[in-house]
Amino acid sequence: MKISLNWLKNYIDLSESPEVISKLLTDTGLEVEGLENIEQVEGGLAGLVVGEVLTCEKHPDADKLKITTVDIGGDEPSPIVCGAPNVAAGQKVIVATVGTTLYPTEGDSFKIKKAKIRGEVSEGMICAEDEIGIGVSHAGIMILDTELPNGTPAAEYFNLEDDTLIEIGLTPNRADATSHIGVARDLKAVLHREVKWPSVDTFKKDNDALTIEVSVENKEACTRYSGVTLTDVKVGESPEWLKAYLRTIGLAPINNIVDITNYVLHEVGQPLHAFDADKISGNKVLVKTLSDGTRFTTLDEKERKLNAHDLMICDGNSKGMCIAGVFGGIDSGITTETKNIFLESAYFSPDYVRKTAQSHQLKTDASFRYERGTDPNITIYALKRAALLFKELAGAKISSDVIDIYDNPINPFEVAVKYKNIDRLIGKNISKEQVHSILESLDITIENKSEKDFTAIVPPYRVDVQREADIIEEILRIYGFNNIELPDHVGSSYLADFPATDKDKIQFKISETLASRGYFEIITNSLTKPAYAAGDSSINEKQDVVILNKLSEDLGVMRQSMLYSLLEVAAHNINRKQADLKIFEFGKTYKLQEDKYKESNRLGILITGNVEAEHWAEKLSKVTFHDLSAVVNAVLGKLTNKSLESKVSHNSPFDYALEYHLNGKVLATLGKVNATVCRKVGVKQEIFYADLDWNLLLKQANNNIVFEEVSKFPEVRRDLSLVIDKEISFDKIKSLATKLERKLLKRINVFDVYEGDKIDSNKKAYAMSFILEDKEKTLTDKVIDKTMAKLMSAFENDLGAIIRK
Fold first, then answer.
1. How many angstroms separate the CA atoms of 229 and 399, rounded?
2. 205 lies in a domain?
3. pLDDT tens readout for residues 369-418
4. What order of strands is seen across the sheet that includes strand 48-58?
5. Largest CA distance in the chain
6. CATH code (residue 799)
């Protein structure tokens, strides 16, 4: 939203600098996004002065040129060659002195130079209004009627004053601040100064020359409708002061009638619409909706199809004249021939205007305000204010009483407020007197005061203040956020609660992760066969939860493991020639422990067959443990950022497996399923399976976000080839390395493993990369070599490694 500082000063006394005013507004919640100095005329008329033509003679060598001498306040008159037909001795004129840059109304700027024109010296230029950018006329030079001394700057004669444009990033809730007086109200509260509303006391009817009847048929969409007629209107150009204000906020002046309605809109925030009264059939205005699909041509000359919910301003024949609160129609608008006007000022429903503006893709200054909620109590004031300006600037006569249809008045909002809640939410005890003073400065009155609470009566134009928290926010923004000191110990009673873990969202996130890697989710029965426990030491038959009224022996117990459910699905698919499988399931397992039933949430993941489907461009490769490990690590990485301990296991039902531990508890177990276990279910191919404790993982889900500054210094990589005993795991090497070098060692990776006839049968060779980085400076070769020497020495001494060089 754009505010003119000069315009704003009409309503409140402001001596502060634009920067100070900007800070005050931002502190109250009207965030100022920019300040811009605005010249009323480009260049500010610099170098232009008032001059007096002393002599004027015909140019000897040019019929249309004249040689003049002009007093511009210097020691000697200036000779100027002029081509204007109306120049004559004795005139007061505007002169552009040598060196002045002119910015004409049309065309490029140019600089005045001392020159010879047809042999005659010319030291300046006598100007027409279009040549200096203050008008469009080029019929001749400007002839001034002034007693100002020669040499007076032209800016002083035209009373030009630079303005400051205040650009406010208006939030949607602040409908009350969509005008200059709206902004002045906030400054009033902060600076304790009165807002001066222009008087409308002189408003009175001049005659009864024009009567317009108004009928509001849709009172849900139009709560209040006000209007007045004006006659003998003279449509013409607006005065310079009015045009200057509009230009500052980015509006192009059109004519005095349209300019006045725009002026009042940006002055008080109430949209107005002026109709050519002679185009209103039957001298009657109907406020109603029209049938769906009705065609209507708006001011931009576009034909639009109306919707059934579009509120329209119609004439006596129910022909649309204006889309209410949004855009006018081309047939009823003001033209240079307009003599009589019906002026509208209304309160339209924000919901109706918003739907209409969106459906027709029309965003206007009027709809911007109606959508947010205007002041229903200001329609008459705005009407009188505009009518008085029409009288002053367009010679209009007020030709009817004010029409005002307001059957269901909008009442102020009553909000109960407790002092203890003010102190609690603000975090500081503010005196009751100061609380009352702030609210009253915002036009919020206080009733039913007691020691503990009061009732705030909020005017309808503050549509964003309807709850106790809103009242407290009003107090705080005027008191000043910066005036709230931070306590030594910050409590959380006035802070938002941290959101509880949303289990469904987390599960969905992991499902997406698995699905993106080609896994399909399954849902199986929690009932299973008791026979699966035979030969599987991971299942204790004594802990079975037995079904008392079992339907069959195959569904006799609740499952203790997810494995057999997934194996049954694998067997079903493999028997139907679908041997390449990637499946997962979120499910529950059940145990009877110490006479208590225990239910556990698990995530089971199973892969078998080939990594990818058969394709001519790729060789078939069987899935391996590492394919399963990659997807499990991806899941764990989504849920926790903590370092996990890993241990190798050979426990049932796996031939071999890897366990991830956190704080002594097993988070996940993954490995190759024993062939005997697979055959129980009828599966004859290799199965890799992972079991994850979903309850434990959910507890880690809120701790997985870590922010770290990106290093400004480069990483360095060094490779080593180690020959070590087969029983030494990579984790042992990694643990030793990170223990020795915590600061510089960033990552360790194995990129090749060798076991074969070139080394002893009880040995294996690791090709490893070590990534080093110092976050404070660039690593030198000396530091790198020293670090690697320390690591190699530890590998040789502690692990018995042979470093291959």
1. 5
2. no
3. 999 999 999 999 999 999 999 999 999 999 999 999 999 999 999 999 99
4. 78-82, 66-71, 48-58, 92-96, 125-126
5. 128
6. 3.30.70.380
